[in-house]
Amino acid sequence: MQPVCNRVTVALSDTVGLHPGRKAAMVEITAEDDGLPCLEVGAWAEEKYRLVALYDGLFSTGMKNKWETRVYIDLYAGPGFAHVRGTSRILLGSPLLALQIPDQFDKYIFCESGADRVAALQQRVNRLFPGADAHYVSGDCNEKVEEICANIPSSSREHGVLSFCFVDPYDISIRFSTVKRLSSYYMDFLFLLALQMDANRNLEHYLNPDNSKIDEFLDLPDWRERWRIAEGQGTRFPRYLAEEYSGQMEKLGYLPVAWHKMKQVRSEKNLPLYRLALFSRHPLAHQFWDEVLRYSSDQRSLFEG
């Protein structure tokens, strides 16, 4: 049974241009008890959403005078609200966080595989952000990538279009072919790489030659042989996957991302779950990400109502 969202007030920050000791302006959004589905998440999701919200604001405002059109793409959008397991807390999901920033993106594309979640998200967006230019894609992003691309505005020499794509799967189900297709546009990515919560836990399963999940995740048919070499050199599997992923993104023209630049997020029991990795072709995006990582702890209080 899906949890129902209670009526909550969520305090959100204007995250742009944060400096130590400076208080950000607050925007208050009240979520009514609408009876619609929520995601069920662990407490660790609060850190993820906080980091994403900070980056959304920095990116969108930082790029608004450099590009004529800014597009936000969420490949695993969810229903818009998330319930923290074992508590009464309700969080805004990544789509609504991207909508509440001071300088909104010009267009939003939300993809979600669950039809009930798409319907819930659309109702919430229409209620809370009725003026937003939002398009909804129902289905697996790997299967719907052409529909996603069809909704990205055309770019020209006179009219530049920059997209930011948030990729937040439960596991390593995002295919590299999907990423490669999207990267044919001017596009930055923030990935949740489920290196511990999926890949490391299921290594023996994925090593089976009949299992193609990591083959598709990395687009490296010989990854097993490469892993054996890395393992022999003392590299642990999560780091091996992360470094291979960075190498594949480099082939698409993205700047390399070191292991220590991929933000680790841990569970309530302090166990590593995944890493958040930003990929861009321009160093300015990485400056924004460095600022998010530098100030994210200081901004924790801004998200406490």
Protein described:
The chain has helices spanning 45-63, 94-99, 115-128, 145-150, 176-182, 195-200, 203-207, 213-218, 223-232, 237-251, 283-295, and strands at residues 8-13, 26-31, 39-41, 69-74, 81-84, 90-92, 107-112, 134-138, 161-167, 187-193, 263-266, 272-279. With 305 residues, the protein is of the alpha/beta class. It has a domain at 8-192 and 281-303: Rossmann fold, CATH 3.40.50. The chain has a seven-stranded mixed β-sheet with strand order 8-7-4-9-10-12-11, with helices on both faces. A three-stranded mixed β-sheet has the order 3-5-6. Strands 1-2 form a two-stranded antiparallel sheet. The longest helix is centred in the first third of the chain and has 19 residues, at 45-63. Mean pLDDT is 88; it is low at 1-27 and 298-305.
